[in-house]
Design a protein that fits this description.
The chain has 322 residues and is an alpha/beta fold. It folds into 2 domains: 165 residues, 3-Layer(aba) Sandwich (D-Maltodextrin-Binding Protein, domain 2), CATH 3.40.190; 107 residues, Periplasmic binding protein-like II (D-Maltodextrin-Binding Protein, domain 2). It is built from 12 helices and 11 strands. The strands form 2 sheets. Strands 2-1-3-10-4-11 form a 6-stranded mixed β-sheet, with helices on both faces. The radius of gyration is 22 Å and the shape is globular. It starts with a helix and ends in a 5-residue tail after the last helix. 43% of the residues are buried.
């Protein structure tokens, strides 16, 4: 009986200490790792969040750009950080849902080594074709590709990128053969799409929307589960007949696994509050990013589903980066 009482007392003290730590959090600077160089899309999403959190917390929130190995360098550093709430990471679909299957040794397991806090934002991708392609719908594109297997070239910013995987999933679900032309980044891919050297591309919406509006590219579908506000007049691939297709780009906030739940709950509540501010929505708009701010449970489910989905696509393609 005495032993049981001692255990209960110890548990109560520990719980009290955790709650006290959460109430005092943060009492010093917080580091927000961005696993890519400054100036990129993830960095642009991270900085206004860091600024608003610093204002809310009265403590510095320092953006720490740790680029390298497709985001693995910064993601591994976050996974190995002390689980005390003072190191967070703004991850993306590539770092947290793709890389552990794509790389022979990514150095982390996103479902084991991280606590998912919230999906911050979502950016749709759009399937575009060059105007010379005689297809004005997904059905027409599929028919054209089936009539001429391998004749159509598709652009991507590189092997193993989300664009590459999204197009391979499209190929598999549509039952078509296309020829992959990987580039070293979105800039060169866009240049050849505009020039007609490649015929189609599943690209991040902000990259191609200006050229769609100018008539230099033709949009056939978005990759979202439902029509995003920035592309409300474009049908989704699911609407076009590929039921269940979804391949957006998301940004999510994570902490190292074993970070105390009271601290995670406080971070979640404060981040969700910050994401509702007009300043954040205004900062996200040029990236075509829509605020999500979901629950940690919903984000965890999404992460697990995406890890399983892209693991299968990568295995089917026999892709591996050593």
């Amino acid at each position: 009986m005495k032993t049981t009482l001692k255990i209960l007392a110890a548990v109560a003290l520990a719980a009290h200490a955790l709650l006290a730590a959460a109430q005092d959090y943060p009492n010093r600077a917080v580091r927000l790792i961005v696993p890519f160089p400054p100036g990129g899309g993830t960095d642009i999403i991270a900085r206004p969040i860091a600024q608003k959190l610093a204002e809310k917390w009265g403590q510095p929130v320092v953006v720490d750009n740790r680029g390298g190995a497709g985001g693995n360098v910064g993601t591994k550093a976050a996974a190995e950080a002390p689980p005390d709430g003072y190191t967070l990471i703004l991850g993306v679909q590539g770092t947290h849902a793709v890389n552990q299957s794509l790389y022979a040794n990514a150095g982390f397991d996103s479902t084991r080594d991280f606590a998912a806090i919230t999906m911050v934002a979502n950016t749709p991708n759009i399937l575009v074709v060059h105007p010379s392609v005689p297809a004005h719908s997904v059905a027409e594109l599929v028919a054209l590709a089936k009539a001429k297997p391998g004749a159509l070239n598709y652009a991507t910013p590189g092997n193993g990128t989300p664009s590459h995987l999204a197009t391979e999933m499209f190929k598999r679900m549509a039952g078509v053969e296309l020829t992959h032309v990987p580039y070293k980044g979105s800039g060169p891919a866009l240049a050849d799409m505009l020039g007609g050297q490649t015929q189609l591309w599943i690209a991040n919406a902000p990259v191609v929307l200006p050229h769609i509006k100018a008539g230099k590219l033709r949009a056939l579908a978005s990759t979202s589960a439902s029509r995003p506000s920035i592309a409300a007049d474009i049908p989704t691939l699911a609407e076009a007949g590929l039921k269940g297709y979804e391949a957006d780009t998301w940004y999510g906030l994570f902490a190292p696994a074993k970070t105390p739940k009271p601290i995670l709950d406080k971070i979640h509540a404060d981040v969700v509050a910050v994401l509702q501010s007009p300043e954040i929505r205004e900062a996200f708009a040029p990236q075509g990013a829509e605020v999500v701010a979901n629950s940690s449970e919903a984000f965890t489910r999404q992460l697990n589903d995406d890890v399983a989905k892209w693991k299968k696509v990568i295995a089917d393609l026999k892709l591996r980066i050593d």
